[in-house]
Amino acid sequence: MLLGVKTEEAVGSRIKSLAASVKHFTDHNDILLDTLTKSDDEVTFSILDSDDAVAIDKMLSELEGLHIEHVGEDYALTLTSDAIDKTKKEAISQAIETIRNRLNQFGLAEPTVARQGTDKILVELPGIKTQEEEQRARELISRAAKLELIAVDEDRAMRVYGMSDADAAQYGDIILADKERPEVKYLLKEIPILDGGMLTNATVAFDQNNRPVINFALNSEGAQIFGDFTGKSVGKRMAIVLDGEVYSAPVINERIGGGHVQVSGNYTVNEANDLAIALRSGSLLAPIYMMEKRSVGPSLGAESIRNSMIALIGGFVLVFVFMMVYYKMAGVIANIALLANLFIILAVMALFGATLTLPGMAGIVLTVGMAVDANVIISERIRELLYEGKTLHKAIEEGYANAMRAILDANITTLIAAVVLYAYGTGAIKGFAITISIGILASMLTAILGTHGIYEMLEKKITKSKNPSFWFGISKKRIA
Amino acid sequence: MEFFKQTKTINFMGSSKIAMAFSIFLVLSSFVLLATKGLNYGVDFAGGTIVQVQYQGTAPIDKMRAQLKEQEMFKGASITEFGSPDEVIIRLKSSSKDVSKDIGDVAREALKGTGEFKIRRVDIVGPKVGNELREKGVMSLLLAMLGILIYVSFRFEWRFAIASIFALIHDISIALGALALTQIDVNLDVLAALLTILGYSLNDTIIVFDRIREGIIKAKNTVLSVVINESVTKTLSRTTLTSLTTFFVVLTLFINGGEIIHSFAFTLLVGVVVGTYSSIFVASPILMWLGFDIKNYHSKLADKAKRHAEKEKMRAQFEQGTV
Questions:
Q1: How far is A321 from chain B (nearest CA, A)?
Q2: Are residues A148 and A135 part of one domain?
């Protein structure tokens, strides 16, 4: 499948964290702000006291990739286009890295995760056997896995059911729903206590009722913040939020040191395992979406390829028989070259690990056609010379020389087209281009060098036999 | 065995005007067809979703339709038989972007109770992918033609290059016209077939041109149409043999290849016929009408040989130290 990355959202969250750091800085330094607002690509605010401008400017100058517009007391912050590009690029490479990590831990055979173009990710899972496995892999890949620990706004928690999102925003709160029972709502502080960035490990364990739970460990900084917060907030609730859903909101009974947190939820062992993998491998900076997916059931793939193969082989056999009847020995020699040509194409394709697709098959039809053509051209040229009364030996030599130019020009022109198609084409066109490039090179080798070599090997026999109709299938009457 | 025993030159260029009128008619009708009916882009280019389902026994299409109607995801789905009465294709113009929710699973769930079935194929192509593919496909075709133009100009002469490109455009247009006429789904396999036609037609044209070039160089007669007639007659046996063998390979593919390869084989079938015809009746007359002059070409060749000889002389003198 081909996945896209919503890179704009990575930019959006960059803006969001910019707003958060401005807020954090001003709160911390007792700077009074008038209206701090953020849009999709801009943070604006004004300061009340123009003396604070020096401190603000100093703080902002330490942040990278900012474009600052400062008029009087008004500030407008945007990201420079370089910073936006960089954020987008990072979001993509981080997504690739994360998906690869997750799939590796999932334990599938030979997953491919590769960048395609500038902003697409190609994921191939040849090891998938069952429908369930595929479903699990897709869920694992697409999971944002954004873990947050957020304090419940206990002052207003009672009124949550009467509030809209806009009402909540006035108090700096957000409303999130419970995972198990979506009708249960929580009023939570907008700015979380901790997020998944401070997570060091996540494992699956079982609680006293033998249900799977996820234990995770925080780094020292996270453990410190968590300890401080729980110490201050005894008797209040803390929500454990994953991807915007509240998993649980236990009451804090005491200060929790050591940085170990347990998340229970009503999951199966598989779900708990996948969740732990997603948490361990980190969250996706930007969400991903499906651009293209192709799954061919094993029966269909095999069957259609087999049918087409039978048809192709049938066609080739017809051509082989025809060549032998029409050109006699020359036809036999041409057929040897054709077979060698086919084997070379298949062998090189196998070497590159190319799968036989329809465009690939089209390439084989074209190049085998061109190889037959090369042999026909050579044989016709030799026949012409024989009609003119040349000896067998001379006719073969001159026939090859005459045919060579035409074959080379025709093949090189097609090869040029193939190279351009390879350079500019995507997926299927590329496959086609590779097959014909291999095929053309192979057919020049077999049709020109190969058959000529066979004639040279048989030279003595040919000159001794003096029987052009046996070698090239022409009627004796016309030579005379 | 021999098919072509006549040693008499056939006057191909004599009927070139009629052939040309016929070609122009075909190309123009293809353009009209493309403009009015248009190509029927399949999921690969238009974007959308395909779910292929195989039943044990005849597929209950009406029942499927009724049950799929209930699902939000399958709004506006078209359900058609595919190849045999057992097999059905569900086509959707939309494609779901959701990675975790698969339309194959939704279909499996929705079709429960309609009989024993297997989901054989799920293709989802987002609109962006299809667009990009179309743009890149056209772009690569144009660039390929440019490359051919340069090479053929270099090896033959610019008029040969123009003529071969016209023959290519002729063949591809008519093949596209045939696709518009039959309203066959244009998918990646059809694109592959079009590319094959390009390669095939080019091969054919170059082989004929090579003979014409040879004829021109050896010619004592300076009337181009006579030389072309002689050369085309000489390649006739090869042209027919190659075309016939290719035609039979493609025909067996068309008849026995199964539904999935049908559109591919059809496009090739059209291409082989048109490609053979165009190398004789389109490429060569264009060469004539572009004002190719044998005397001119001969004097150019003579000039070239003279310059080459002079260069050799200079070099020889230089090496002997007399200059």
A1: 11
A2: no
Residues of chain B with CATH 1.20.1640.10: 13-40+129-292
Say whether A134 and B102 touch across the interface (CB within 8 A): yes
What was the pLDDT predicted at B190? 84
Average pLDDT over residues B84-97: 81
| pLDDT tens digits, A302-328 | 666 677 778 778 888 888 898 898 888
Residues A10 and A85 in one domain: yes
Q: Residue B38 in contact with residue B29, Cβ under 8 Å?
A: no
Structure confidence at residue A299 (pLDDT):
53
Topology annotation, domain B13-40+129-292: Multidrug efflux transporter AcrB transmembrane fold (1.20.1640)
Structural fold of domain B48-125: Alpha-Beta Plaits (3.30.70)
- pLDDT, one tens digit per residue, over A136-171 is 888 888 887 778 888 888 888 777 788 888 887 777
Residues A44 and A120 in one domain: yes
Interface check A415 vs B, CB under 8 A: no
Query: A420 at the B interface (CB within 8 A)?
Result: yes
Task: Report pTM.
Answer: 0.73
Q: Is A332 on the interface with B (CB under 8 A)?
A: no
Integer Cα distance of A118 and A115 in angstroms = 7
The helix/strand/coil state of A83 is helix
Residues of B in contact with A304 (CB under 8 A): 258, 260-261
- Report chain A residues whose CB lies below 8 A from the CB of B188: 358-359, 427-428
CATH of the domain at A241: 3.30.1360.200
Say yes or no to pLDDT of B71 above 80. Answer: no
Return the pLDDT at A358.
66
**Domain limit, last residue, from A243, A271, A292:** A292
Say what angle helices B158-182 and B127-155 make with each other, to 10 degrees: 150
CATH number of A106's domain: 3.30.70.3400
Beta bridge partners of A175: A187
Is A362's CB within 8 Å of B123's CB?
no
pLDDT in tens, A423-459: 877 666 777 788 888 888 988 888 878 888 888 888 8
Mark whether A312 and A458 lie in a shared domain.
yes
Q: For A348-392, how does the pLDDT look when each residue is reduced to its tens digit (9 = 90+)?
A: 888 876 666 667 777 787 778 888 888 888 988 888 888 888 888
CA A377 to chain B, closest CA, distance in angstroms equals: 6
Residue window 226-265, chain B: list those with CB within 8 Å of chain A. Answer: 234-235, 237-238, 241-242, 245-246, 248-253, 255-258, 260-261, 264
Cβ atoms of B102 and A135 closer than 8 Å: yes
A430 CB neighbours in chain B (<8 A) are none
- Looking at chain B, which residues constitute the CATH 3.30.70.3400 domain(s)? 48-125
User: In 10 A of CB A264, how many CB atoms?
Assistant: 16
What is the interface pTM, i.e. ipTM, of the complex? 0.78
Of A84, A114, A141, the position where a domain reaches its end is A141
Same-domain check for residues A330 and A475: yes
A39-A42-A47 Cα angle (round to 5): 100
- Whether A470 and A321 map to the same domain: the answer is yes
Instruction: Flag whether residue A362 sits within 8 Å of chain B, measured between CB atoms.
Output: yes
From A187-191, A263-267, B8-12, B305-309, the region with the lowest mean pLDDT: A263-267
E strand or H helix at A33? strand A33-38
DSSP per residue, B126-186: -HHHHHHHHHHHHHHHHHHHHHHHHHHHHHS-HHHHHHHHHHHHHHHHHHHHHHHHHT-EE
Residues of the domain holding A384: 298-479
Tokens of B160: 């040969």
Interface A–B counts its CB contacts (< 8 A) at 246
